[in-house]
């Protein structure tokens, strides 16, 4: 299978992705847009070539047959773990090298080993055999799984922030209603004394019970004096007759 030629690099200004252009591997700096995978690693969207992507996800696949585990590695009785990178290799894939301490192929030759090194034919064209195709397919599955997990994570984050925004909106509405009620009470408290003062001006002053008794005594004495005056002419006439 022949591979297409690389394309000119382009840059991205998005703050949510790494500063590396999509056509460049963020680890080995190789430029080949056809074999660059996007994956979310440690909360950041990064771009890797096939080899670097597989090296950064050692527990997600078998480094020999490139079987993708998808978060469910083989049982401990059917796998052997690398003592350096914690990758899980099938026992039947490890062969005679499964005796501990086991080291996977990338860890046995960290400088010269590559998961994906395209073959260049006699015409200068790059091509892949079955082993390279399996490695590329495994890397693509890891990248897809990583992006699906990122979508799930950001969806849950959006839902959580939406709920928080709804609660904050409700609290803000309740606080605004409380402020309006307090303002209304303050207005009533300011207008009530002026109403009482204006009402008292139109009312007659109230008299105490003692003053009322004294007033009644004065009125009764005045009435007695009036009666005496009315009777005084007859009294004078009696005296004259005598």
Q: Could you tell me how far the N terminus lies from the C terminus, measured between alpha carbons in angstroms?
A: 168 Å
Proportion of residues in extended strands: 5-15%
* Uncertain residue ranges: 4-17, 234-242
**What's the Cα radius of gyration?**
51 Å
Q: Give the helix/strand class.
A: mainly alpha
**Number of DSSP helices?**
5
Query: Which H/E pattern describes the elements?
Result: EEHEEHHEEHH
Kindly state the mean pLDDT as a whole number?
76
Strand line-up across the major sheet: 1-2
Shape: elongated
Extended strand count:
6
Largest sheet: 2 strands, antiparallel
Percentage of helical residues?
40-55%
What do these coordinates show?
The radius of gyration is 51 Å and the shape is elongated. The relative contact order is 0.08. Residues 4-17 and 234-242 have low confidence and may be disordered. The strands form three sheets. A two-stranded antiparallel sheet has the order 1-2. A two-stranded antiparallel ribbon has the order 3-4. It has helices at 50-55, 91-94, 105-108, 130-201, 209-241; strands spanning 36-41, 44-49, 79-81, 88-90, 119-120, 126-127. The protein contains five helices and six strands, in the order E-E-H-E-E-H-H-E-E-H-H. A hairpin with a 5-residue loop joins strand 5 and strand 6 (126-127). It has 242 residues and is mainly α. The chain is 49% helix and 9% strand.
């Amino acid at each position: 299978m022949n591979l297409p030629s690389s394309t000119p690099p382009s840059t991205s200004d998005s703050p949510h992705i790494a500063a590396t252009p999509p056509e460049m591997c963020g680890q080995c700096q190789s430029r080949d847009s056809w074999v660059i995978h996007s994956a979310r690693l440690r909360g950041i969207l990064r771009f890797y070539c096939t080899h670097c992507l597989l090296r950064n996800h050692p527990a997600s696949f078998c480094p020999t047959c490139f079987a993708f585990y998808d978060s469910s590695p083989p049982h401990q009785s059917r796998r052997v773990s690398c003592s350096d990178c914690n990758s899980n290799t099938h026992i039947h894939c490890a062969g005679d090298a499964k005796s501990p301490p086991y080291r996977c192929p990338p860890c046995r030759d960290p400088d010269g080993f590559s998961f994906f090194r395209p073959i260049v034919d006699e015409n200068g064209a790059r091509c892949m055999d079955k082993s390279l195709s399996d490695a590329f397919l495994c890397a693509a599955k890891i990248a897809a799984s990583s992006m699906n997990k990122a979508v799930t994570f950001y969806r849950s984050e959006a839902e959580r922030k939406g709920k928080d925004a709804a609660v904050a909106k409700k609290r803000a509405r309740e606080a605004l209603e409380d402020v309006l009620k307090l303002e209304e009470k303050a207005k009533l408290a300011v207008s009530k004394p002026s109403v009482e003062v204006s009402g008292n001006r139109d009312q007659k002053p109230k008299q105490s019970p003692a003053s009322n008794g004294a007033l009644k005594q004065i009125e009764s004495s005045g009435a007695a004096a009036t009666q005496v005056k009315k009777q005084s002419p007859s009294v004078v006439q009696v005296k004259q007759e005598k």
